Each structure stands twice: as C-alpha cells, then as structure tokens.
Amino acid sequence: MRKFGTPFSSAIFVCTQKRPDGHPKPCCANSGGMALRGELKEMVQSKGMDGGVKVFTSGCLGACEHGPVAVRYPDGEYLLGVTQDDLPEILEDLAKD
C-alpha cells in the first residue's frame, strides 16, 4: 500500500443509493440525492473551487430515513435531510476548510 495526502482540502460524499422498487427502506436516490450531488458539483465548478473541493457520489451512509444524506470532510460532519436550499451553506462551509 502507498499513502498520499489528498490533493484537495475538502470533500463531501453525497448518498445516491438506489434501492430496488418496492424495498421497504427509503433511499437517497428517491429523495433527490442524485440531483443534489449534481447541483453541488456544478456549484463547486462554477465558483472555481474544484481544485480544492471534491464532490463524490456515495453509497448508503446509513441514515436512509433522514435522506438525502451527505458526509463532509475534513470535519466529519453528517448532514441529514439535505435540500436544495441547503447547498449554498454547504458550499460556504466547504470553502472554509
């Protein structure tokens, strides 16, 4: 194994987990996770922050009932019930790291 520091200062993982139709547990994909991830990524790029901030797709982050869910690093913040209205604040927090 080889270890390296990351080439970016902040990262956010947005759950885009899609469960099969009829599954009893909710999923972030059906709660808007994919659209939120895409919009956040576009916001990061449009602000010229894509060199220091990375937006990743994630599988299940374990809080399906509270989705969409995201995790922000390096702070390790767990974000539950993310909406489109939250994206500017998330972007601002990412810029601080």
What's the short story on this structure?
Helix content is 25%, strand content 22%. It contains two helices and four strands.
Indicate the CATH topology.
Glutaredoxin
- Our count of domains comes out at 1
**What Rg, in angstroms, do the CA atoms define?**
14 Å
Question: What is the 3D shape?
Answer: globular
The low-confidence runs, each spanning 5 or more residues with pLDDT under 50, are none
* Secondary-structure element order, N to C: EHEEEH
Amount of beta strand: 15-25%
Number of DSSP helical runs: 2
- Major sheet description: 4 strands, mixed
Mind telling me the CATH superfamily name?
Glutaredoxin
Helix share of residues?
10-25%
Question: Can you give the mean pLDDT?
Answer: 92
Describe the structure.
- The protein is of the alpha+beta class and 97 residues long.
- It has a single domain, classed as Glutaredoxin, CATH 3.40.30.10.
- A four-stranded mixed β-sheet has the order 2-1-3-4, covered by helices on one side.
- Strand 3 and strand 4 form a beta hairpin.
- The radius of gyration is 14 Å and the shape is globular.
Task: Please write out the topology.
Blueprint: E1 10-15, H1 33-46, E2 53-58, E3 69-73, E4 77-80, H2 87-96
Parallel strand pairs: 1-2
Antiparallel strand pairs: 1-3, 3-4
List the main descriptive attributes of the protein structure presented here:
97 residues; alpha+beta; Glutaredoxin; four-stranded mixed sheet; 4 strands; 22% strand
